[in-house]
């Protein structure tokens, strides 16, 4: 059995030669197999059967050349085989419709979300999604009447995941509640209620000012950006090490970054709801950060 490492997408898949009888069996209940499409020819006419994960592209294939250079076989891959995998935690009561928007945004960027996790393990990064208000005692405040019911287990898990991701310098993309959770995890505090920022059905609500030297500005390619807005809480005291990357016209913080890390970006709006436009750039930048963890050459490596 061999592992193919793809330079284009920095991903790994298992390749089993067709001559191997084991290739006719699936390796686990979550995997299935596809042969190389008929009519495709490599220089050596050597096809491979590729074991694909559940969400991989069904028409993916790999053809492998028998030509050796420095003892390494080379392969041509028709489509991406396996997506980069990141943690996507949710609360127990998060509706499926809201989960689907995050799943879709990640998959459109070539990233596979993994839910129901307790740690990051071998995952490449972390996405913190929107959701319920964070328990005020997490940032040393008394609960105000406007604060929604909190999800204690989710708060605890996600703070632990943030700490693990930062310790390992894994990429983090945080959205809405995720921005607030990141700020709290870094020792910051929140304003428990603000007016004029909750418009769940509007695609465009306000123009924010993006800091010129920020990572966010380099991703979006602009210093003025129109966003949606669905929140009623906001950052008060900024957490240790975090830098403000964007603000709303009324001074509400709309984005945070952690410059000392490889990629930690948090936005207060909901880009997952607008991936048919420039917001898709945020997920593409997240993917690029995931890809830079290692520089995989295109080769076959014996297992």
How does this structure look, described?
With 303 residues, the protein is α+β, with helices and mostly antiparallel strands. It is globular. The model is unreliable at 1-81 and 294-303 (pLDDT under 50). It has helices spanning 96-108, 152-168, 177-185, 215-220, 280-291; strands at residues 2-6, 11-17, 32-34, 47-52, 62-69, 72-77, 84-87, 111-114, 125-128, 172-175, 190-191, 198-199, 206-210, 224-227, 229-230, 234-235, 243-247, 253-257, 264-267, 299-302. The strands form four sheets. A nine-stranded mixed beta sheet has the order 8-7-9-10-19-18-17-13-14. It has two domains: 2-82, no CATH class; 84-291, Class I glutamine amidotransferase (GATase) domain (Rossmann fold). Helices cover 19% and strands 28% of the residues.
Strand content: 25-35%
CATH topology term of the largest domain: Rossmann fold
- Unreliable parts: 1-81, 294-303
Count of β-strands: 20
Could you outline the blueprint of secondary structure elements for this entry?
Layout: E1 2-6, E2 11-17, E3 32-34, E4 47-52, E5 62-69, E6 72-77, E7 84-87, H1 96-108, E8 111-114, E9 125-128, H2 152-168, E10 172-175, H3 177-185, E11 190-191, E12 198-199, E13 206-210, H4 215-220, E14 224-227, E15 229-230, E16 234-235, E17 243-247, E18 253-257, E19 264-267, H5 280-291, E20 299-302
Helix pairs in contact: 2-3
